[in-house]
Amino acid sequence: MNAEKIEGQAREEGRSRDAEVRLRSDYCVFARGGATFAISTRVAREVLDWRPFTPLPRAPEGLVGAFNLRGEVIPVARLDRFLGVVEKPIERSDALLVLADGELTLAAFVDGVAAVRHIAPWEIQRPDLEERQRNPLLRGTIGRDEQRTSILDGERLLAAVAAHVASGFRPGPGVLIKGTRDRTGAAPEGC
Hints:
Mean pLDDT: 81
Number of domains: 1
Oligomer: single chain
Structural class: alpha+beta
Strand content: 25-35%
């Protein structure tokens, strides 16, 4: 087989894998604060029973703590504000939903995970412009009234949580970052 045929086959295989990823429509359906949500299984990686975590002193709002999962430290964040539900205390009956996209991984407490469900793209009712502007993390909904499930954009959700938590990390008093100056205008030693 010549090099051109091999390259052509590799391109076709890559296209079919890309199409498979785009068409993949399995969602993890979970509840939080009396509402039902679904997030793609490309982002929802694992469901864990409640487990102890280490609180992080002076952590930004929304970052609850961290725990060890098979040798990897996983931050635990609150999703309530991003889901548009009233913030509620963490309870031992809550489950942990591990979310990951690329190098970013975090876990969040949810009331429970109902199922992994196939939702065909044509079943999703797209939000109108006004609703999309109100909640940019919403991809659409399925069902009606009490049976309504909000389909979330998992990648945007993770990015929004990470940006929110990162914005809360500020140096405390007396802490100087390289490239900054103290009140007298002097740069810290070594900067």
